């Protein structure tokens, strides 16, 4: 059996990378990933990256926050120890609701923002102490690298290499790896 | 790729490549600290230590060492609190509101403006903390089960709303800032050659590798955080204003307070951003990224918010007369003609008159004039809070309780000290952190870079 290989194709411009990705995908080549120093707009649909659902997650965290805040204030102010504060309606959540709006809002934002941020870090696997996995240190500066795996493609390494060499590339490196 | 009209001034000057942007920002971090930086941090940390000393003396002795008395129970402390929180608002405005409006000029200034926000909110939080007197029981502001009943905190009180508002605001701003920093820390990590530095920036960068999926998520998180930080920033200063507006003190009990405070906050915050950035662009050679056009845009925001503040002052005066309530009228007559009239007229001159000078294009685009006026505005906005707080309190309901407030050395020391701590933190940030949002600037290089715009317009004229 042929050994598994990974191709790292480097470009020196985001436009060239985008063009090359379109060319390769048109030939039926599967691009595994792209490493870039900034978001390359338009690359996601080309290489098949789906839209993230983080915003939905954030909405759910925020809704949880809203419910928790309202439940907490109902318990503290209405249920457990109602107090007469300046004649305010301290015995009904609905009547006292206007005074609870600010804290409800703040707590919803708190849960929505932090919940989403944590989910984002966990899903990315970017956490303190994690090792970097970009194939070349220049990809966080001004270079763009496309990653293609032989095991994901029906072509062999030589055919892939030929297809890749047709694009406006800067460097190409091919490595073997153990899956 | 997005195109930009050729007549728009470019946001990035000079013939810059992606690599140049990295070099210009990361270069100073790799190099030795410049002498000017060493001098500035020495001065600011000496002031910071003096401030910490004053705070420790205050905590050890009690808040009687401030000039507070039975009549004027809030003075410099709450003035400083509101002033610092207000300054913080510009950072969130730049990073969140301008992101939603797709304003690309924010990209050169958002990182340092957000840093300013975070340090300013820390300074703000110091004041209610030490104003409690017994700071070691400050956890009593949280709704924790306790042995008094349980006796809970009062959720009807705007002071408690403030606890939630400020802590949410601080922590969300911090997360927003750090998420933007992660890719830039990765850039520094990959350029560092010394092992220890590489290790530290490696830890800070959380192993960021710049994969396509991660960038998609990054942009989504930035957008959603901006979306929720925008109402947050308005709510925070509205709640701060309700600390005053919900009490029945003449001069405080007005419905105009929330919008008036929010625009005042943005006004003073932008002034502080100008003060900091005009020095930073010069000392760190960032003139190509933060240039006259950025300064002009910020000055336009200062004119708008300064004018709103001016209208609010006049509305307050008019309504106090129009209300027909003599106590309310007296509160305002006393402001401009009473014992604190000097503060009132400083406030009026600095906040209402001086920003109007920016209508002149020459002044608006002059860096020296902008720097001078930004300091004037900061002084004016401090006096605004002082006027609102002290003049309203010093004439108590019962004339036998009328009093006056005189600041003590500790009042001054704590305030100056927080300035020292703030500048120390900001200088450390400028030395060790990427001061420009590298990854964001690179995305606008092709649409707003000077050289790219020139090539584009040349290409068009040849057709």
List keywords for this structure.
heterodimer, A: 179 residues, alpha+beta, Alpha-Beta Plaits, four-stranded antiparallel sheet, 5 helices, 4 strands, B: 463 residues, mainly alpha, Formate dehydrogenase/DMSO reductase fold, 16 helices, 71% helix, globular
How would you concisely characterize the structure shown here?
The complex is a heterodimer of chains A (179) and B (463). With 179 residues, chain A is an alpha+beta fold.
Question: Explain this structure to me?
Answer:
The complex is a heterodimer of chains A (179) and B (463). Chain A folds into 2 domains: 5-50 and 134-176, Histidine kinase CheA-like, P2 response regulator-binding domain (Alpha-Beta Plaits); 54-124. Helix content of chain A is 48%, strand content 12%. Chain A is built from 5 helices and 4 strands. Chain A has helices at 14-26, 43-47, 54-80, 93-124, 157-165, and strands spanning 5-11, 33-35, 144-149, 171-176. Chain A has a 4-stranded antiparallel beta sheet with strand order 2-3-1-4. The two termini of chain A are 14 Å apart. With 463 residues, chain B is mainly α. The two termini of chain B are 20 Å apart.
Query: Main sheet of chain A?
Result: 4 strands, antiparallel
The number of strands of chain A is 4
pLDDT under 50 segments of chain B (min length 5)?
none
CATH class of the largest domain in chain A: Alpha Beta
CATH architecture of the largest domain in chain A: 2-Layer Sandwich
Shape of chain A: rod-shaped
How many alpha or pi helices of chain A? 5
Using a beta-carbon cutoff below 8 angstroms, give the protein chain pair with the largest interface and the number of residues from each chain.
A-B, 65 and 67 residues
Biggest sheet: strand arrangement of chain A: 2-3-1-4
The residue fraction in helices of chain B comes out at over 70%
Tally of discrete structural domains of chain B: 1
Distance between the termini of chain A: 14 Å
Rg for CA atoms of chain B: 24 Å
Radius of gyration of chain A: 26 Å
């Amino acid at each position: 059996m042929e050994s598994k290989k990974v191709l790292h194709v480097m470009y020196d411009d985001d436009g060239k990378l985008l063009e090359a990705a379109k060319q390769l995908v048109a030939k039926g080549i599967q691009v595994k990933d792209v490493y870039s120093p900034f978001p390359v707009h338009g690359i996601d649909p080309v290489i098949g990256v789906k839209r993230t659902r983080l915003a939905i997650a954030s909405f759910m965290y925020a809704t949880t926050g809203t419910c928790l805040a309202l439940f907490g204030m109902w318990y503290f102010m209405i249920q457990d120890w109602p107090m007469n504060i300046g004649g305010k309606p301290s015995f009904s959540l609905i009547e006292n609701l206007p005074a609870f709006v600010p804290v409800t809002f703040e707590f919803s934002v708190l849960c929505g923002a932090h919940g989403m941020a944590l989910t984002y870090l966990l899903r990315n696997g970017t956490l303190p102490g994690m090792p970097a996995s970009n194939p070349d240190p220049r990809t966080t500066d001004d270079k763009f690298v496309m990653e293609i795996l032989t095991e994901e493609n029906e072509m062999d390494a030589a055919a892939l290499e030929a297809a890749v060499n047709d694009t406006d590339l800067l460097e190409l490196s091919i490595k073997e790896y153990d899956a | 790729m997005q195109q930009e009209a050729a007549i728009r001034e470019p946001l990035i000057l000079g013939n810059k490549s992606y690599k140049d942007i990295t070099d210009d920002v990361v270069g100073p971090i790799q190099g030795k600290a410049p002498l000017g930086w060493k001098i500035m941090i020495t001065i600011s940390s000496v002031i910071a230590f003096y401030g910490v000393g004053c705070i420790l003396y205050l905590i050890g002795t009690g808040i009687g060492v401030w000039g507070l008395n039975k009549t004027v129970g809030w003075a410099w402390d709450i003035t400083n609190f509101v002033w610092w929180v207000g300054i913080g608002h510009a950072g969130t405005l730049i990073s969140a509101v301008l992101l939603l409006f797709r304003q690309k000029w924010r990209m050169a200034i958002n990182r340092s403006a957000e840093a300013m926000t975070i340090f300013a909110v820390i300074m703000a939080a110091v004041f209610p903390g030490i104003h409690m007197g017994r700071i070691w029981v400050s956890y009593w502001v949280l709704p924790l089960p306790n042995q008094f009943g349980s006796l809970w905190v009062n959720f009807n009180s705007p002071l408690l709303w403030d606890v939630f508002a400020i802590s949410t605001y601080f922590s969300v701003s911090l997360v927003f800032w750090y998420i933007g920093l992660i890719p830039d820390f990765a850039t520094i990590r990959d350029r560092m050659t010394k092992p220890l530095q590489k290790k530290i920036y490696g830890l800070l960068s959380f192993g960021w590798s710049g994969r396509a999926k991660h960038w998609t998520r990054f942009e989504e998180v930035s957008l959603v955080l901006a979306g929720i930080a925008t109402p947050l920033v308005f709510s925070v200063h509205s709640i701060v204003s309700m600390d005053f507006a919900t009490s029945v003190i003449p001069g405080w009990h007005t419905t105009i307070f929330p919008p008036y405070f929010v625009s005042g906050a943005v006004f003073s915050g932008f002034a502080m951003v100008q003060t900091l950035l005009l020095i930073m662009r010069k000392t760190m050679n960032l003139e190509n990224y933060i240039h006259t056009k950025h300064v002009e845009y910020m000055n336009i925001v200062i004119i708008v918010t300064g004018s709103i503040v001016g209208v609010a002052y006049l509305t307050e005066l008019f309504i106090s007369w129009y209300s027909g309530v003599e106590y309310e009228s007296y509160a305002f007559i006393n402001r401009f003609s009473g014992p604190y009239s000097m503060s009132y007229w400083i406030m009026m001159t600095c906040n209402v008159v001086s920003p109007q000078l920016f209508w002149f294009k020459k002044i608006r685009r002059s860096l020296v004039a902008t720097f001078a006026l930004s300091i004037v505005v900061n002084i004016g906005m401090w006096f605004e809070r002082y006027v609102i707080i002290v003049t309203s309190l010093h004439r108590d309901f019962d004339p036998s309780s009328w009093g006056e407030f005189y600041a003590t050395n500790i009042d001054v020391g704590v305030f100056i000290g927080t300035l020292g701590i703030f500048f120390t933190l900001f200088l450390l940030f400028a030395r060790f952190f990427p001061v420009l949002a590298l990854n964001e600037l690179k995305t606008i290089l092709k649409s707003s870079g000077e050289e790219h715009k020139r090539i584009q317009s040349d290409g068009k004229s040849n057709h």
